[in-house]
Specification:
Among the domains are: about 90 residues; about 130 residues, Histidine kinase-like ATPase, C-terminal domain (Heat Shock Protein 90), CATH 3.30.565. Helices cover about 65% and strands about 15% of the residues. The chain is built from nine helices and eight strands. A hairpin with a 5-residue loop joins strand 5 and strand 6. The longest helix has about 80 residues. The two termini are about 70 Å apart.
Length: about 400
Protein backbone atom coordinates (compact mmCIF):
# COMPACT_ATOMS: atom_id res chain seq x y z
CA UNK A 1 0.00 0.00 0.00
CA UNK A 2 2.74 2.51 0.95
CA UNK A 3 4.78 1.53 -2.11
CA UNK A 4 1.77 2.10 -4.35
CA UNK A 5 1.15 5.58 -2.87
CA UNK A 6 4.80 6.64 -3.36
CA UNK A 7 4.82 5.33 -6.92
CA UNK A 8 1.63 7.21 -7.76
CA UNK A 9 3.05 10.51 -6.41
CA UNK A 10 6.32 10.24 -8.35
CA UNK A 11 4.52 9.25 -11.55
CA UNK A 12 2.29 12.32 -11.19
CA UNK A 13 5.34 14.62 -10.88
CA UNK A 14 6.95 13.13 -13.98
CA UNK A 15 3.74 13.56 -15.98
CA UNK A 16 3.56 17.22 -14.95
CA UNK A 17 7.18 17.72 -15.98
CA UNK A 18 6.49 16.11 -19.35
CA UNK A 19 3.43 18.32 -19.85
CA UNK A 20 5.47 21.42 -18.97
CA UNK A 21 8.20 20.49 -21.52
CA UNK A 22 5.59 19.88 -24.21
CA UNK A 23 3.92 23.25 -23.50
CA UNK A 24 7.35 24.93 -23.67
CA UNK A 25 7.97 23.40 -27.10
CA UNK A 26 4.60 24.54 -28.41
CA UNK A 27 5.09 28.08 -27.10
CA UNK A 28 8.59 28.24 -28.63
CA UNK A 29 7.22 27.25 -32.03
CA UNK A 30 4.54 29.86 -31.69
CA UNK A 31 7.04 32.65 -31.03
CA UNK A 32 9.39 31.37 -33.77
CA UNK A 33 12.24 30.20 -31.52
CA UNK A 34 13.43 27.06 -33.17
CA UNK A 35 16.21 26.40 -30.67
CA UNK A 36 13.89 26.68 -27.72
CA UNK A 37 11.33 24.51 -29.48
CA UNK A 38 13.93 21.82 -30.15
CA UNK A 39 15.05 21.95 -26.52
CA UNK A 40 11.45 21.64 -25.27
CA UNK A 41 10.76 18.79 -27.69
CA UNK A 42 13.90 16.95 -26.61
CA UNK A 43 13.03 17.47 -22.97
CA UNK A 44 9.50 16.21 -23.49
CA UNK A 45 10.75 13.12 -25.34
CA UNK A 46 13.28 12.42 -22.60
CA UNK A 47 10.70 12.91 -19.91
CA UNK A 48 8.26 10.60 -21.77
CA UNK A 49 10.93 7.92 -21.82
CA UNK A 50 11.65 8.43 -18.14
CA UNK A 51 7.90 8.25 -17.35
CA UNK A 52 7.54 5.07 -19.39
CA UNK A 53 10.57 3.47 -17.71
CA UNK A 54 9.34 4.56 -14.30
CA UNK A 55 5.89 3.11 -14.93
CA UNK A 56 7.40 -0.18 -16.04
CA UNK A 57 9.65 -0.43 -12.98
CA UNK A 58 6.97 0.67 -10.54
CA UNK A 59 4.43 -1.71 -12.01
CA UNK A 60 6.91 -4.55 -11.73
CA UNK A 61 7.64 -3.64 -8.11
CA UNK A 62 3.91 -3.44 -7.41
CA UNK A 63 3.40 -6.88 -8.87
CA UNK A 64 6.28 -8.25 -6.82
CA UNK A 65 4.82 -6.68 -3.66
CA UNK A 66 1.38 -8.10 -4.46
CA UNK A 67 2.88 -11.53 -5.15
CA UNK A 68 4.78 -11.40 -1.87
CA UNK A 69 1.62 -10.41 -0.02
CA UNK A 70 -0.38 -13.20 -1.68
CA UNK A 71 2.37 -15.70 -0.88
CA UNK A 72 2.35 -14.60 2.75
CA UNK A 73 -1.44 -14.87 2.84
CA UNK A 74 -1.32 -18.34 1.30
CA UNK A 75 1.22 -19.49 3.86
CA UNK A 76 -0.91 -18.15 6.68
CA UNK A 77 -3.98 -19.88 5.30
CA UNK A 78 -2.03 -23.13 5.05
CA UNK A 79 -0.95 -22.71 8.67
CA UNK A 80 -4.55 -21.95 9.63
CA UNK A 81 -5.75 -25.14 7.93
CA UNK A 82 -3.04 -27.16 9.69
CA UNK A 83 -4.06 -25.54 12.97
CA UNK A 84 -7.70 -26.50 12.44
CA UNK A 85 -6.66 -30.07 11.71
CA UNK A 86 -4.55 -30.13 14.86
CA UNK A 87 -7.40 -28.76 16.96
CA UNK A 88 -9.89 -31.23 15.47
CA UNK A 89 -7.64 -34.17 16.30
CA UNK A 90 -6.81 -33.10 19.84
CA UNK A 91 -8.48 -33.78 23.16
CA UNK A 92 -8.24 -30.44 24.97
CA UNK A 93 -9.73 -28.25 22.25
CA UNK A 94 -9.54 -24.87 23.98
CA UNK A 95 -6.00 -25.32 25.27
CA UNK A 96 -4.88 -26.53 21.86
CA UNK A 97 -6.51 -23.45 20.32
CA UNK A 98 -4.57 -21.19 22.66
CA UNK A 99 -1.28 -22.83 21.71
CA UNK A 100 -1.99 -22.63 17.99
CA UNK A 101 -3.05 -18.97 18.27
CA UNK A 102 0.32 -18.14 19.82
CA UNK A 103 2.07 -19.83 16.91
CA UNK A 104 -0.10 -18.29 14.18
CA UNK A 105 -0.10 -14.69 15.37
CA UNK A 106 3.30 -14.73 17.10
CA UNK A 107 1.55 -13.41 20.20
CA UNK A 108 0.92 -14.33 23.80
CA UNK A 109 -2.47 -16.03 24.12
CA UNK A 110 -4.57 -16.34 27.27
CA UNK A 111 -7.86 -18.20 27.78
CA UNK A 112 -10.45 -16.19 29.70
CA UNK A 113 -13.46 -17.71 31.51
CA UNK A 114 -16.92 -17.07 30.02
CA UNK A 115 -18.00 -13.44 30.43
CA UNK A 116 -14.64 -12.24 31.79
CA UNK A 117 -12.97 -9.30 30.06
CA UNK A 118 -9.93 -7.08 30.84
CA UNK A 119 -10.76 -3.98 32.84
CA UNK A 120 -9.06 -1.72 30.32
CA UNK A 121 -10.06 -1.55 26.66
CA UNK A 122 -7.72 -3.56 24.39
CA UNK A 123 -4.91 -1.54 22.80
CA UNK A 124 -3.82 -1.83 19.17
CA UNK A 125 -1.42 -4.60 20.10
CA UNK A 126 -4.09 -6.63 21.98
CA UNK A 127 -7.48 -8.12 21.09
CA UNK A 128 -10.10 -10.33 22.75
CA UNK A 129 -12.02 -12.85 20.62
CA UNK A 130 -15.04 -14.58 22.25
CA UNK A 131 -15.60 -18.31 21.82
CA UNK A 132 -19.32 -19.01 21.29
CA UNK A 133 -21.20 -22.27 20.77
CA UNK A 134 -24.95 -22.14 20.14
CA UNK A 135 -25.10 -18.47 21.16
CA UNK A 136 -23.51 -19.35 24.50
CA UNK A 137 -20.06 -18.09 25.39
CA UNK A 138 -17.73 -20.86 26.52
CA UNK A 139 -14.69 -18.60 26.94
CA UNK A 140 -12.59 -15.92 25.27
CA UNK A 141 -9.14 -15.74 23.68
CA UNK A 142 -6.94 -12.73 24.51
CA UNK A 143 -3.97 -12.08 22.21
CA UNK A 144 -1.16 -9.58 22.87
CA UNK A 145 2.09 -8.87 20.97
CA UNK A 146 4.62 -6.10 20.29
CA UNK A 147 3.24 -4.93 16.92
CA UNK A 148 -0.39 -3.86 16.39
CA UNK A 149 -3.14 -6.16 15.10
CA UNK A 150 -4.75 -5.12 11.82
CA UNK A 151 -8.20 -5.89 10.47
CA UNK A 152 -7.02 -9.05 8.72
CA UNK A 153 -5.67 -10.40 12.02
CA UNK A 154 -9.03 -9.83 13.68
CA UNK A 155 -10.84 -11.67 10.87
CA UNK A 156 -8.41 -14.59 11.03
CA UNK A 157 -8.64 -14.84 14.80
CA UNK A 158 -12.44 -14.79 14.58
CA UNK A 159 -12.41 -17.66 12.07
CA UNK A 160 -10.10 -19.64 14.34
CA UNK A 161 -12.29 -18.94 17.39
CA UNK A 162 -15.49 -19.98 15.58
CA UNK A 163 -13.93 -23.24 14.43
CA UNK A 164 -12.55 -23.97 17.90
CA UNK A 165 -15.94 -23.32 19.52
CA UNK A 166 -17.70 -25.66 17.11
CA UNK A 167 -15.05 -28.32 17.60
CA UNK A 168 -15.35 -27.96 21.38
CA UNK A 169 -19.12 -28.44 21.09
CA UNK A 170 -18.64 -31.48 18.81
CA UNK A 171 -16.18 -33.01 21.28
CA UNK A 172 -18.64 -32.43 24.11
CA UNK A 173 -21.48 -34.02 22.12
CA UNK A 174 -19.23 -36.98 21.29
CA UNK A 175 -18.37 -37.46 24.96
CA UNK A 176 -22.06 -37.25 25.89
CA UNK A 177 -22.86 -39.81 23.20
CA UNK A 178 -20.18 -42.10 24.64
CA UNK A 179 -21.66 -41.75 28.12
CA UNK A 180 -25.16 -42.48 26.82
CA UNK A 181 -23.90 -45.48 24.90
CA UNK A 182 -22.16 -46.82 28.00
CA UNK A 183 -25.34 -46.27 30.03
CA UNK A 184 -27.42 -47.98 27.33
CA UNK A 185 -25.02 -50.93 27.35
CA UNK A 186 -25.18 -51.10 31.15
CA UNK A 187 -28.98 -51.02 31.15
CA UNK A 188 -29.06 -53.66 28.42
CA UNK A 189 -26.83 -55.92 30.53
CA UNK A 190 -29.04 -55.29 33.54
CA UNK A 191 -32.12 -56.15 31.51
CA UNK A 192 -30.57 -59.40 30.32
CA UNK A 193 -29.52 -60.22 33.89
CA UNK A 194 -33.02 -59.44 35.16
CA UNK A 195 -34.57 -61.67 32.50
CA UNK A 196 -32.20 -64.51 33.40
CA UNK A 197 -32.96 -64.10 37.10
CA UNK A 198 -36.69 -64.08 36.36
CA UNK A 199 -36.44 -67.26 34.30
CA UNK A 200 -34.39 -68.89 37.06
CA UNK A 201 -36.96 -67.84 39.67
CA UNK A 202 -39.82 -69.23 37.58
CA UNK A 203 -37.94 -72.49 37.03
CA UNK A 204 -37.37 -72.83 40.78
CA UNK A 205 -41.01 -72.08 41.56
CA UNK A 206 -42.21 -74.65 39.04
CA UNK A 207 -39.74 -77.27 40.24
CA UNK A 208 -40.26 -76.75 43.95
CA UNK A 209 -43.99 -76.19 43.68
CA UNK A 210 -46.05 -77.57 40.82
CA UNK A 211 -43.64 -80.31 39.70
CA UNK A 212 -43.23 -81.68 43.23
CA UNK A 213 -46.99 -81.56 43.81
CA UNK A 214 -47.71 -83.35 40.56
CA UNK A 215 -45.11 -85.97 41.45
CA UNK A 216 -46.91 -86.51 44.75
CA UNK A 217 -50.24 -86.80 42.91
CA UNK A 218 -48.73 -89.43 40.61
CA UNK A 219 -47.52 -91.45 43.61
CA UNK A 220 -50.92 -91.23 45.28
CA UNK A 221 -52.70 -92.34 42.12
CA UNK A 222 -50.29 -95.26 41.79
CA UNK A 223 -51.01 -96.25 45.41
CA UNK A 224 -54.74 -95.91 44.77
CA UNK A 225 -54.55 -98.22 41.73
CA UNK A 226 -52.64 -100.73 43.80
CA UNK A 227 -55.29 -100.63 46.54
CA UNK A 228 -58.05 -101.15 43.97
CA UNK A 229 -56.25 -104.16 42.47
CA UNK A 230 -55.91 -105.72 45.95
CA UNK A 231 -59.56 -105.11 46.75
CA UNK A 232 -59.08 -102.41 49.37
CA UNK A 233 -61.78 -100.09 48.05
CA UNK A 234 -62.17 -97.82 51.07
CA UNK A 235 -58.42 -97.23 51.27
CA UNK A 236 -58.31 -96.51 47.53
CA UNK A 237 -61.07 -93.91 47.90
CA UNK A 238 -59.13 -92.13 50.63
CA UNK A 239 -55.94 -92.11 48.57
CA UNK A 240 -57.72 -90.85 45.45
CA UNK A 241 -59.43 -88.16 47.52
CA UNK A 242 -56.04 -86.96 48.81
CA UNK A 243 -54.66 -87.00 45.25
CA UNK A 244 -57.61 -84.90 44.09
CA UNK A 245 -57.06 -82.34 46.84
CA UNK A 246 -53.36 -82.06 46.01
CA UNK A 247 -54.19 -81.80 42.30
CA UNK A 248 -56.57 -78.91 42.97
CA UNK A 249 -53.95 -77.20 45.14
CA UNK A 250 -51.44 -77.55 42.31
CA UNK A 251 -53.89 -75.97 39.87
CA UNK A 252 -54.23 -73.07 42.31
CA UNK A 253 -50.42 -72.69 42.48
CA UNK A 254 -50.16 -72.61 38.68
CA UNK A 255 -53.03 -70.12 38.47
CA UNK A 256 -51.29 -67.85 40.99
CA UNK A 257 -48.04 -68.14 39.07
CA UNK A 258 -49.77 -67.21 35.82
CA UNK A 259 -51.52 -64.30 37.54
CA UNK A 260 -48.22 -63.03 38.92
CA UNK A 261 -46.55 -63.19 35.52
CA UNK A 262 -49.22 -61.14 33.78
CA UNK A 263 -52.47 -60.71 35.67
CA UNK A 264 -55.44 -60.63 33.35
CA UNK A 265 -57.11 -57.94 35.46
CA UNK A 266 -54.08 -55.64 34.92
CA UNK A 267 -54.38 -56.00 31.18
CA UNK A 268 -58.17 -55.80 30.99
CA UNK A 269 -59.20 -53.49 33.85
CA UNK A 270 -56.13 -51.43 34.78
CA UNK A 271 -53.52 -50.99 37.48
CA UNK A 272 -55.68 -50.13 40.50
CA UNK A 273 -58.05 -53.14 40.12
CA UNK A 274 -55.03 -55.45 39.67
CA UNK A 275 -53.38 -54.24 42.89
CA UNK A 276 -56.73 -54.44 44.69
CA UNK A 277 -57.20 -58.06 43.51
CA UNK A 278 -53.71 -58.91 44.75
CA UNK A 279 -54.25 -57.37 48.18
CA UNK A 280 -57.73 -58.93 48.49
CA UNK A 281 -56.15 -62.38 48.18
CA UNK A 282 -53.62 -61.47 50.86
CA UNK A 283 -56.32 -60.17 53.21
CA UNK A 284 -58.29 -63.43 52.90
CA UNK A 285 -55.35 -65.81 53.03
CA UNK A 286 -53.29 -64.17 55.79
CA UNK A 287 -55.79 -61.97 57.65
CA UNK A 288 -53.79 -58.81 56.88
CA UNK A 289 -55.26 -55.31 56.98
CA UNK A 290 -54.34 -53.63 53.68
CA UNK A 291 -54.68 -50.01 52.55
CA UNK A 292 -54.01 -48.94 48.97
CA UNK A 293 -53.94 -45.59 47.15
CA UNK A 294 -52.59 -46.05 43.64
CA UNK A 295 -54.59 -43.59 41.53
CA UNK A 296 -51.34 -41.83 40.51
CA UNK A 297 -50.42 -44.93 38.48
CA UNK A 298 -52.93 -43.91 35.81
CA UNK A 299 -50.32 -41.39 34.57
CA UNK A 300 -47.83 -44.18 33.82
CA UNK A 301 -47.34 -46.03 30.56
CA UNK A 302 -48.65 -49.58 30.31
CA UNK A 303 -45.19 -51.20 30.43
CA UNK A 304 -44.21 -49.06 33.40
CA UNK A 305 -47.39 -50.08 35.23
CA UNK A 306 -46.56 -53.75 34.65
CA UNK A 307 -43.03 -53.29 36.04
CA UNK A 308 -44.27 -51.38 39.10
CA UNK A 309 -46.88 -54.08 39.71
CA UNK A 310 -44.14 -56.73 39.80
CA UNK A 311 -42.15 -54.64 42.31
CA UNK A 312 -45.24 -54.30 44.53
CA UNK A 313 -45.97 -58.04 44.28
CA UNK A 314 -42.40 -59.06 45.17
CA UNK A 315 -42.20 -56.57 48.05
CA UNK A 316 -45.45 -57.95 49.49
CA UNK A 317 -44.28 -61.57 49.03
CA UNK A 318 -41.10 -60.78 50.93
CA UNK A 319 -43.14 -59.21 53.75
CA UNK A 320 -45.31 -62.35 53.94
CA UNK A 321 -42.24 -64.59 54.14
CA UNK A 322 -40.88 -62.54 57.06
CA UNK A 323 -44.19 -62.27 58.90
CA UNK A 324 -46.85 -62.32 57.93
CA UNK A 325 -47.52 -58.66 58.77
CA UNK A 326 -50.63 -57.37 60.48
CA UNK A 327 -50.91 -54.22 58.38
CA UNK A 328 -49.79 -53.42 54.85
CA UNK A 329 -50.10 -50.31 52.70
CA UNK A 330 -49.40 -49.50 49.06
CA UNK A 331 -49.40 -45.82 48.12
CA UNK A 332 -48.42 -43.93 44.98
CA UNK A 333 -48.14 -40.17 44.63
CA UNK A 334 -46.78 -37.63 42.17
CA UNK A 335 -43.57 -35.89 43.20
CA UNK A 336 -42.90 -32.15 42.96
CA UNK A 337 -40.81 -32.52 39.79
CA UNK A 338 -43.45 -34.56 37.96
CA UNK A 339 -42.18 -38.06 38.80
CA UNK A 340 -44.06 -40.81 40.66
CA UNK A 341 -43.17 -42.31 44.05
CA UNK A 342 -44.38 -45.77 45.08
CA UNK A 343 -44.20 -46.87 48.74
CA UNK A 344 -44.91 -50.37 50.12
CA UNK A 345 -45.01 -50.36 53.94
CA UNK A 346 -45.45 -53.36 56.27
CA UNK A 347 -45.01 -54.13 59.96
CA UNK A 348 -43.64 -57.65 59.53
CA UNK A 349 -40.81 -58.64 61.89
CA UNK A 350 -37.25 -59.33 60.78
CA UNK A 351 -35.06 -57.81 58.11
CA UNK A 352 -35.22 -58.31 54.40
CA UNK A 353 -32.48 -60.38 52.82
CA UNK A 354 -29.92 -58.48 50.77
CA UNK A 355 -30.47 -60.76 47.78
CA UNK A 356 -34.18 -59.94 47.69
CA UNK A 357 -33.41 -56.22 47.85
CA UNK A 358 -30.98 -56.53 44.95
CA UNK A 359 -33.74 -58.08 42.83
CA UNK A 360 -36.02 -55.13 43.59
CA UNK A 361 -33.21 -52.65 42.85
CA UNK A 362 -32.59 -54.35 39.52
CA UNK A 363 -36.22 -53.98 38.53
CA UNK A 364 -36.21 -50.32 39.55
CA UNK A 365 -33.07 -49.62 37.50
CA UNK A 366 -34.73 -50.97 34.36
CA UNK A 367 -37.21 -48.09 34.80
CA UNK A 368 -34.41 -45.56 35.51
CA UNK A 369 -35.87 -45.35 39.01
CA UNK A 370 -34.26 -45.22 42.45
CA UNK A 371 -35.18 -47.77 45.13
CA UNK A 372 -34.62 -47.15 48.85
CA UNK A 373 -35.46 -49.36 51.83
CA UNK A 374 -36.19 -47.97 55.30
CA UNK A 375 -36.18 -50.68 57.98
CA UNK A 376 -37.50 -50.10 61.48
CA UNK A 377 -35.40 -50.80 64.56
CA UNK A 378 -37.66 -53.63 65.75
CA UNK A 379 -39.99 -54.43 62.86
CA UNK A 380 -41.48 -53.02 59.72
CA UNK A 381 -40.07 -52.00 56.34
CA UNK A 382 -40.86 -49.34 53.75
CA UNK A 383 -39.79 -50.00 50.18
CA UNK A 384 -39.84 -46.79 48.15
CA UNK A 385 -39.38 -46.48 44.35
CA UNK A 386 -39.09 -43.02 42.76
CA UNK A 387 -39.41 -42.70 38.99
CA UNK A 388 -38.10 -39.55 37.22
CA UNK A 389 -40.49 -37.42 35.12
CA UNK A 390 -39.18 -38.68 31.75
CA UNK A 391 -39.69 -42.30 32.84
CA UNK A 392 -43.37 -41.68 33.58
CA UNK A 393 -44.23 -40.20 30.15
CA UNK A 394 -46.75 -42.19 28.18
Amino acid sequence: MRFAKRSSTRAGLLVLAFAAAAVLAVVALAVGSRLLALAGLAASIALAGVVAAWLIVSERRRHEAAELELTSEARFLESLVETMGSIAGGAEVLERTRQEAERLFEARALLLPPGERPRRAPAENAMVIPLRARDEEIGALRLTRQRPFDRDDVVRATVLADFAAREHENAKLLDDAGVREAERSRLSDQLITAEQDERRRLANELHDGAVQSLSGVALLLDAGLNSIEEGRGEEAQQIIRRALERHRATIGQLRNLSFNLEPVVLRDQGFAPAVRALTDQIELAHNVQVEIDVEAAEELAEKTQAAIYQIIREAIDQALHRGPPQTLSVTMRQTADGGVETAITDDAPGERRRRSLEELEERARTLNGVLTVDQGEEAGTTVRVVLPPYATAR
